[in-house]
Amino acid sequence: MIPQRTATSSTLTLHVNDTAHTVTVDHRATLLDVLREHLDLTGSKKGCDHGQCGACTVLLEGRRANSCLLLAVAHDGAHVTTVEGLGDEERPHPLQQAFHERDAFQCGYCTPGQIVSGVGMLCEAAEGHPSHATPAEALGHSTGAPAQLDRDEIRERMSGNICRCGAYPHIVEALEDVAADGLQARQGSERGSERGSEVSA
Amino acid sequence: MRPFTFERVTSPEQAVSAFAAQPRARYLAGGTNLVDLMKLGVETPEHLIDVSRLPLDEVATTQEGGLRIGANVRNSDLAAHPAVCRTYPALSQALLAGASGQLRNLATTGGNFLQRTRCPYFQDTSAPCNKREPGTGCSARDGVNRDMAVLGHSEHCVATHPSDMAVAMAAYDAEVEVLGPEGARTVPAAEFHRLPGETPEQDTVLRPGELISHVTLGPPPEGARAAYRKARDRASYAFALASAAAVLAVDEGGTVRHAALAFGGLAHRPWRARTAEEALIGSRADAESVGRAVDAELAAARPLSENAFKVPLARSLAVTLFARLAENPTSPAGT
């Protein structure tokens, strides 16, 4: 016998940037809503709210995802890294540093999503994931070796992040800088999978 | 969005029982399409059954030498799976041609089959739409119909199915395993989606409460090569205007032994081009024979006011695909 369920909200725990937060949320709340409205982590942006622009990108269990399409209630116990968890002013993530050095933004609204997506993308490439830009011959002989990222590959792999200012040329350069140093990409990956301690929001 | 209740299940059987108890429920896996449609007010479930943690996340080799893919295998993982890249390149290519990196990390194999049309009138609750609200009429037929179907549409609906993955699955003769209140059954991927007819609200042949558990691929025909091509308005992150998946095997003399062709973006379901395939078997895979075979297939096209361009576009995709596959019969992937 399945009990009749009537609750339209639930209490759940999210591990965000190495810190556990226990929150009670309406089932309609997305992870993006919880980050911004409950946890005061406003780096992740609500651009389109339909999974089309990428401004809300976070790392979910170390992999990039649109937080506007994730119902928080379905992710009880999940480990999430937002742009705030990648680095700060004193110790920026290598990709944050590269965006700064390459002037890879104009208004800055899409930038947190671009950076988090870029970190996730570099990890995917390091794990040998192919892309639509990968030649068919290379795909057919896939070995799982790290993917080489030229500009076409970077542009294809970053197509889920829209920049209305059109800062793409510098964004690609920033990603090229970091892609050239695989060690830095791995640092980002390790940060994304760290586990933290319990606190209540 | 309407308030809803929520439960997480731990087995496919439990999921099916949970649905039986809450018929106004929806299964939630990756959620990339369902959550979006709930925000738009197109989907209004009263209850969500979270199937995303069911242990259906493995790609296993079958006894026959094919693959059995769990419904929860993510699109990005399936596209990068070495056995898929090597043996089913058109599937990998189709997956990588769809959506964005972020979305492919969330979207599941089962959910990809079940995504709804991106017809703008279907997504706009202020517009009449027989698929969303049966009996209200079709806004697209005489509206903005550039992206709509040219094959198999009805006076009630001209929507297309948006999946890339399902097109490759149809060309590879994949089988969809489902579990429902009456037990398990298997449906060929090419017959999983319906044509709209008089009931466009039904996208697929799934019965109420049925859950996709696995998708099975048989071993590809000996010596077969395959590839997927997609035409769209921009180079990345856009739905297909037209797409094609082709599987081809030729004998030493260059005669076609096996040909499978499926189109995306042309119809309410991935369009398996059986007429073209039959014409190709026993012939040569040159541009003239393929063009003639595809013309015979596309003779059934009934373009709308703005989408006649899709017919020559689809023809060109298919002819180019087969030409490339016939060029270098030793390599499994088309270039």
Automatic annotation (TrEMBL), chain A:
Keywords annotated in UniProt: 2Fe-2S, Iron, Iron-sulfur, Metal-binding, Oxidoreductase
Family annotation (SUPFAM superfamilies): 2Fe-2S ferredoxin-like, CO dehydrogenase ISP C-domain like
Domain 2Fe-2S ferredoxin-type: 10-86
Cited InterPro entries: 2Fe-2S-bd (IPR002888), 2Fe-2S-bd_dom_sf (IPR036884), 2Fe-2S_ferredoxin-like_sf (IPR036010), 2Fe-2S_ferredoxin-type (IPR001041), 2Fe2S_fd_BS (IPR006058), Aldehyde_Oxdr_Iron-Sulfur (IPR052914), Beta-grasp_dom_sf (IPR012675)
GO MF terms, alphabetically ordered: 2 iron, 2 sulfur cluster binding; metal ion binding; oxidoreductase activity, acting on the aldehyde or oxo group of donors
Pathway(s) this gene product operates in, as recorded in its UniProt entry: Alkaloid degradation; nicotine degradation
Name used for this protein in its record: Oxidoreductase
Lineage, uppermost ranks: Bacteria, Bacillati, Actinomycetota, Actinomycetes, Kitasatosporales
From TrEMBL, chain B:
Pfam families xref list: CO_deh_flav_C, FAD_binding_5
Originating organism: Streptomyces diacarni
Top-level taxon: Bacteria
Keyword hit for Oxidoreductase: yes
Keyword Transcription annotated: no
Alphabetical UniProt keywords: Oxidoreductase
Database matches in PANTHER family: OXIDOREDUCTASE (PTHR42659:SF1), XANTHINE DEHYDROGENASE SUBUNIT C-RELATED (PTHR42659)
GO terms for MF: FAD binding; oxidoreductase activity
Name assigned to this protein: Xanthine dehydrogenase family protein subunit M
Residues in FAD-binding PCMH-type domain copies: 1-222
